[in-house]
Amino acid sequence: MLETPCLMIDLKKMERNIRDMAGIVHKCGVKLRPHIKTHKIPSIAKKQLDGGAVGITTAKVSEAEVMARHGIQDIFIAYPVIGDAKIERVLKLNQTTRLTVGVDSRQGASRLAELAKAAKRTLNVRLEVDTGLKRTGVPYEKAVDLAEAIHSFPSLQLTGIYTFRGALLREEPTRDLESAGLEEGEMAVTLANRIRERGIPLQDVSVGSTPTAAYAARVKGVTEVRPGTYVFYDRMQAELGVCSLDDCAASVLVTVVSRPTEDRIVIDGGSKTFATDIQPNTPPLHLTGFGHVVGHPDIVFERMTEEHGMLKVTKDHPFQVGDRIRIIPKHICSTVNLHNRVTLESGSGENVEWEVSARGHLT
């Protein structure tokens, strides 16, 4: 019998999600490069590659190192690589892997170029552009000049641009995912063409998160999309309308450890089990609680401490100490990063554990 709390993965649903996204993207004639931040598991990345992905995306050098050790050969680190130690690791990884890294500043590009030159290597880079999320990325209006500066470094090969925007439309959160995706794609293509007018032969225009990938991929000139959450989906994506709750391949199995009052049950999963980065009742979705209780949509997962989850129930709910329930997390990416392993349900009655190999790889 499985010990709880336990992160469960429905293998058939996951494989269907992988297959469906690949079909949507390929129909548009665009490459799929999924972000492994959601699952952090090499075996799942290989399933995505077998399903038609051209390579993978990571956020950190250490994630790329884990994936490369498991035989994955085409990796994009979609994050500015800053610091000599990290750059040296990138250059080492680049000896055995088809690697591309993100840059968003002249300072960062200059140091990459210096160390690449010293190692007598050429490093592929993509310029990250801020299209409204106000995170990393050169401001949109400054991107052409920075592209020219990066292009001037002989040891760097500027292959393209990329952006991450999420569900934004005119820089505001939206549920109109089609308009958001089309706007994201059009902004990136327009910018890429302006850079090409300066004599820089960009190949890659990489955009698209799980909510927007299917729409951004329609834009002529977009070459690649990088969704991540789609492999499992979660309650946020279901609320956005990207998927149904039944499409969610990941859930957390927990045990009721206490029912101290008629209107409260306590489970053995708290903030060390479920992500807390998306708080309840925050825009744009204003979701109640920290997850969806499967089979009981009226129950509210209202608060957590480290080891306890408190769920509001009505007195007619029959839950007793020892009962087990499943919860679809609000945000699956951060939830996976709290677990050392996942349990795959194949439908045959046999469960298989997979290590979350890139969990906690933050450098």
TrEMBL record:
GO terms for molecular function: D-serine ammonia-lyase activity. Keywords: Lyase. InterPro entries: Ala_racemase_N (IPR001608), D-amino_acid_metab_enzyme (IPR051466), D-ser_dehydrat-like_dom (IPR026956), D-ser_dehydrat-like_sf (IPR042208), PLP-binding_barrel (IPR029066). This is D-serine deaminase-like pyridoxal phosphate-dependent protein. Residues 249-346 form the D-serine dehydratase-like domain. It comes from the Bacteria. GO terms for biological process: D-serine catabolic process. SMART domains: D-ser_dehydrat. Belongs to the DSD1 family.
